[in-house]
Amino acid sequence: MGNPRVVLARRTLGSLRSEKTIVLALVIQLFIAGFSSFLVVGLVSLYDPGTANGDALTVSVGVTGNASSDVAATIADDDSRSVVPYPSQAAASAAFQRGDVQALVHATRQPGGRILAAATAPEGSFRTTLVVTELKGALSTLERERRADLDHRLERTPVDLPPDERSNPYFSFTYTVLLPLLAFLPAFISGSVMADSMAEELERDTLSLLRVAPLSLPEIVDGKAIALVGLAPAQVALWLLLLWLNGTHIANPLALLALVAGVAAVLVATGAALALRVGARREAQLLYSFVALAVFGVASLLPQSPQNLIARLAVDSPTTLTWGLLGVALTVAAASYTGLRWLAGGAET
Amino acid sequence: MISVQRLEKRYGGVTAVDGVSFDVGAGEVFGLVGPNGAGKTSTLKMLCGLVEPSAGDITVNGFDAGDTAMRRTLGFLPEESPLYDEMTPRSYLRFFADLYDVDRATANERIEAALDRLDLDARDRPVGDFSKGMTRKVAIARSLVNDPDVLVYDEPASGLDPLTTNTVIEFTRELAADGKTIVFSAHDLHHVESVCDRVAIMRDGQFAATGTLADIRDEHGEVSYRVFTDVDVDDARPSNGRYVTTVDSMADVDAIRAAAADAGGGVVDIRTDESTLEDVFLDVTGA
Amino acid sequence: MKAGNVLRIARWETTRSATSLDRETAIAFVVVAVALAAIVPAVVTTGPTPGEGIYRIGVDDDSPYADVAASDPQLAAVQPGSDADVTVSPVGIQYADTAKGRAALSTLRSATVAYNDAVMADEPDQAAAFPVVVSLTYRPQSIDVTSAQADTDGAGSSTTGGDGGRTDTPSTDDGATGTSPTAGASGGGLSGLLGQAQSGTPSSISPPFPLQSLVFAFAFLLPLNIVIQAYGSSVLAERIDRRGEPLLVAPVSRGDIVAGKTLPYFAGAIALVSVIAAATGAGVLAVLAVAPLAALFLAATFLGAMFARSYKELTFVTVAVSVALTTYAFVPAVFAEVNQIAAISPLTVVVDSITDSGVSTGQFVLSTAPPGLAAFVLFGLGTGVYREEDMFTQLPIPSKLLDALAAPLATPRRAGVWTALFLPFVLVAELFAVALLFVAPVSLSIPVLLGAIAVIEEVAKSIHVFAAFERGQYRRSFRTALAVGAASGVGFFVAEKALLVTQLVGLPGLDIGRAAFAPALRGASPGLLLVAPLVWHVVTAAISAVGAARSRLAYVGALAAAIGVHLAYNIAVVVIALG
To answer: Transmembrane segments in this chain: where (chain A) (predicted)?
Structure first.
């Protein structure tokens, strides 16, 4: 009860709550997550509107040229494409102009057996991406078939393609981008708030009031840090819960939260140390942003970057190295925190 | 020099200043006294144009309060004197001199003179390391960089040690002697008594009393008489083998004289007590 | 505002910042900057893959799929039988029937395609290895009969797009015949992503994906985010312990102080942006386009720093500003090469400037005027509370916001002026709503958009009126409410008429854009067309003003009613206009 650190930690949390900044922090994280998800959903739907809307659009392709039969066969191969043959390029072009077809392919067979496909897609329309994706799919199929036909002329045979099973296009994004973002953002914000909090106490000279109370500087740092380091995994736990409710399976949640707490400890220690050394908020905050960037930059040079660690743990593909690096991260966290306490102890005398 | 008519200030539902009027002549030192929250600071801030009045008129030096031309002729010392910690007194004062369009040579001359008179030696150290008294001196020097005609000082000596307080009060008196018009607030009456020509006592946003100190004492002060007798009379207290009764009119004194005579004694001494400014202050502000 | 005073304060702000850096901090900055400069190229060259090894492929070492798995960093080869997501056996390929298993299979499939292409590149008979060669060109289609363009050019020739004068380079069909098409895939790579003509094998063809603009968005916005950190601190520092008070008594106007304090940061931001523009090959136009955005970043931060009670709060305010404005600039720019909606983002001008596509005046104005005007208004609001009474008080942010909104409303007529000044925000918000909704099907997007517009416009017409009644600027009477409401409605109408810039860029060419900005009544008389919106704006503004004059609760109710009326009107107009 009487532990001054707990009292101080409670006060730090209390001020976050009373200023409603914690609500703002959560809103910001939600906004960033929503924004990046929107981006991906938007982009994926550009390539493949069927995944976003449920009803696939059909791209009709006007086909001309002496190899049009080969091309037409592969284009018609898929339900999402239809073929309209035209006798001449001029007729096809006119049809394209009118909007009767969304794409043109003029296919000609070359002497060496090669097929030349001159494709035309609509410019600056929001269907362009879809049209090109469909053309690419059809022509790739044609390429595979032609390769099989010309097998006798090849030294090595192409590897057979694995079956084409419909998979969630956002799967990889969720684990490798969205989740790391949601995991590291709270840690980064915690460090930033720590720097603010220390700089503010120094600038307003309220730190001396705390120190008049029977509290040493390391204890003051402890009190604030307990609150802020603890807050990061708490927020991430909330995001994990939301993702889980949304049907996203998250493996190794405890290891994930431990990693987040470790990263938060490193960043909070950095923020506090900079604020103590620099004193002024503007400089401390700027320096903190740069140092945090550098820390992430260096860490991403590791054999498994922090982002990758989160992804591997959450998707349940950790290797021995993953666990080893988690251990390293926690050790570094403990070391930086000890370093901070030593710095605070030194600053006191 | 300064004319204030029916000045009012309301913050939301709270009335801080409630219909205050006064004039201050050129070269006069006018003091505002009153307890915390009486409306002194609000009045001073409206005088310098920092705060917009809710009602009423202010003219300073012939200009409306807040007018840029008026600001050039005015020096303001706020109650707190926070400075930019990373600046030195010289760089800080030069910046303000620059804002007031004072040319470099004149500015340097004024800055050095003011710092000399205020006895501040650390002129090239960041003010972040300064004591409260030293920052106060820098703030006072700032109020003088434009050689203003009118000075508005809010509690210039509050929270300073006695020595620095003396320096500041002495300096204010010198400024008054230089012919500056000064409006000055304080809750310490000694400062007011030693510097001001006229004072106003504020209470709940209004002037409870104004005038010279003598006027106020005459009007609100009370005279009491201590009557010493050699015999015990009604209400008397024993004192050093004599008896003393405190009354506040000459009729009462006569009554005691008669009562003492009846008891076979007489009045041996009468002393007159005038109330101090503190007494008047406590009386007027209802504290 | 006097230039001399502004420059004095700007110079002071600069020297103060420079001298406030003690040697230790300065060294720390240099060290960190050097470290970053060393780390960035290292990160770029190693190119860490966040998804490295997330899919486990169970495969024997002698299987050809072992090489496939080794070729894609996302795939990790493991011994078959262990907990693999996909197992390759002589019988065939099995996969776990989970989301992860299917994702692993799909990744293996695309990795196989890439692997095959790499293997085929070594074949001596390239005509058999790459039996199909594609050349892709883009041509405008004129589907819209009302704006039919006479385009009689032959296939593949140079044509001009309807949206702003982009010119395609003519591409010849025989561009890739002789030599190996994989090696010589002309116009592939970045230009392909930017939607330009390309040729090569089918797999080398990339659909236009504006990845570039995402990178540029970050490159151009990052310095702004750093500058606002320092700027916000500087503004808030003036408010701590009343430090800024003496400055308020000096013979300079509030505008001088604010402009002077802002100028160095604005200049710094522009300098940084110019460096980035030079590095990425963007022109002066790109810098000009980002300038209003930089001003908006600073303006929003300024207002935030005027409201924040502590550095902690300021941090959240600046992060919120960064996120919101980055999104505004970013989301539409994603579609830079694909859709006209991109025209609302200044970053589109940047992308166009880098790709040397022309930018029409209309486009430039549309992308820069709203943020520029919004910055102007935010600075106006912030300067309004840059005074003793508001700067040094510790009120919660909503209460300060009401103060700021109420401060300029001295007369009922001012309500109309400020409604007009809010129009850039209305425009920004509506454009953003359009950008968010345009991918959705029209049956969903148009009703949602109409609702969003009704909310945005009614709030813009009444929020400051509410603030003014709350802060006692107006007498709470029915008559005053009507006068103020009418002024606000008229202000909105006048400003909206001035907003014909959207017409200049063909945004109404988009169905959803037309619903938002040009709901013209077909077949109605011109007089009715002019008077109807005026009456309708005045009526809805008056409804919410009457509520605002009564109480907070009444305001919420009246605002809801005004939104309802607005929505009903909008739906009626759109139904008539779109048929």
So the answer is: 21-47, 170-189, 225-244, 250-274, 286-303, 323-344
Of the candidates A153, A179, A200, which is a domain's last residue?
Answer: A153
Q: For residue B55, give every residue at least 6 positions away whose Cβ sits within 8 Å of its Cβ, in sequence order, or none.
A: B6, B7, B8
* Shared domain check, C393 and C287: yes
**Per-residue confidence band for A54, with pLDDT thresholds at 50, 70 and 90:** very low
**Residue A217: what pLDDT?**
79
Exposed (0-12), middle (13-18) or buried (19+): which is C239, by Cβ within 10 Å?
buried
Are C493 and C544 found together in one domain?
Answer: yes
CATH number at residue A110: 3.40.190.10
Does residue C129 belong to any structural domain of this protein? no
CB within 8 Å: C387 and B52: yes
* Interface list for chain B against chain C, based on CB atoms closer than 8 Å: 11-12, 45, 48-52, 68-69, 71-72, 74, 76, 78, 80, 82-84, 86-87, 91, 95-96, 98-101, 139, 142
Does residue A96 belong to any structural domain of this protein? Answer: yes
What distance in Å separates residue B196's CA from the closest CA in chain C?
24
- Residue C536 amino acid letter: W
Question: What is residue A27's predicted lDDT score, i.e. its pLDDT?
Answer: 73
pLDDT, one tens digit per residue, over B147-182 is 999 999 998 887 788 888 888 888 888 888 888 999
Instruction: Express each pLDDT in B50-60 by its tens digit.
Output: 888 888 999 98
| Chain A CB contacts of C121 below 8 Å | none
Among B154, B201, B194, B157, smallest CA distance to B176 is for B194
Mean pLDDT of all residues in C330-349? 67
Put simply, the chain A residues between 58 and 87 with a CB less than 8 A from any chain C CB are none
The most confident of A49-63, A198-212, C201-215, by mean pLDDT: A198-212
C465 within some domain: yes
Q: Are residues A25 and A56 in the same domain?
A: no
Same domain, A254 and A286: yes
CA–CA distance, C469 with C457 (Å, rounded to integer): 19
User: Considering only the top CATH level, what class is B2-219?
Assistant: alpha beta
Residue A160 belongs to a domain: no
Cα–Cα distance measured from residue C460 to residue A246, given in angstroms and rounded to the nearest whole number? 35
Residue scoring higher pLDDT (A41 or A147): A147
Asked if residue A180 belongs to a domain, the reply is: yes
The tally of domains found in chain A comes to 2
Residue A224, chain C, CB below 8 Å: the answer is no
Indicate where chain B has its CATH 3.40.50.300 domain(s). 2-219
Distance from CA of A203 to the nearest CA of C (A): 9
Task: Determine which of C13, C23, C25, C141 to mutate to test the interface with A (most A C-beta atoms within 10 Å).
Answer: C141
Q: Is the CB of A112 inside 8 Å of chain C's CB atoms?
A: yes
Write down the ipTM of this complex.
0.84
How far B51 CA sits from the closest chain C CA (Å)? 6
Any domain includes A267: yes
Residue C172: is its pLDDT beyond 50?
Answer: no
Q: Which of B48, B80, B86 sits opposite C16 (nearest CB)?
A: B86
Give the separation between CA C106 and CA A173, rounded to whole angstroms. 14
Contact C305, C317 (CB under 8 A): yes
Q: Based on the fold, state whether residues C389 and C417 are members of the same structural domain.
A: no
> CA B280 to CA A68: how far, in whole Å?
111
Task: Identify the domain containing residue C340 by its residue range.
Answer: 209-407
**Which helix (H) or strand (E) segment is C320 a member of?**
helix C311-334
